Amino acid sequence: MKKQLLSLCIVIGTMTFAQSTDEPRFGIKAGGNLSSITDGDSKSKLGFYGGVFINIPISEAFSIQPEAIYSLQGAKLKDDYDFVGYTITNMKQTLGYINVPVMVQYNATPEFYLEAGPEFGLLINAQAKGDINGNSYKTSNKDALKTFNFGLGLGLGYKFTPNIGINARYIAGLSNIVKNSGEEISKNTNFQLGLNYYF
Questions:
Q1: What is the pTM of this model?
Q2: Bridge-partner residues for 190, per DSSP?
Q3: Are 33 and 73 in contact (CB under 8 A)?
Q4: Which residues lie below 8 Å from residue 44, measured CB to CB, with a gap of 6+?
Q5: Is the pLDDT of residue 101 over 50?
Q6: Which of 22, 108, 172, 195 is found 20 to 30 A from 123 (Cα to Cα)?
Q7: Cα 159 to the chain's mean position, in Å?
């Protein structure tokens, strides 16, 4: 019985990987972010991302793509406000993450694919910037934020040539990014659009 089970595992494994003769492909990617924070007072902010990836075929229809990406995210405050005699305007929160998405891609055609998977983020830097009574100020507020971020990404892509493609992805944050926030939950959201280059 053990021999039959072992033989079955070997056959299934061989069939799975025999369906794809493609080798893993390394690549680079870069593009723009449209990010926000889900706290009710924020609106979207433009940023950028860039990094590397490896696309690993596991069958003719599916591949796995781990990535390492530097992503500049954050949000703007919707409205100006007064705080203990100070007028606060043009408030921006900038967040710099090293993100590691692990996307499972379904190749609907040789050119077009759909993808989904988790994204793990490490906060590298954080800066709050704004005008107080007409004077500009900025400060690091990384200590007030959680270092680890977790989200779920959904996206699609198209390969114009074997080496060049376009990718669109939405990442919904699932973890609270603020320390000691009480009952208020603040999560990252991010829409990415950019180019991939496959070596």
A1: 0.83
A2: 35, 171
A3: yes
A4: 34, 35, 36, 75, 76
A5: yes
A6: 195
A7: 20
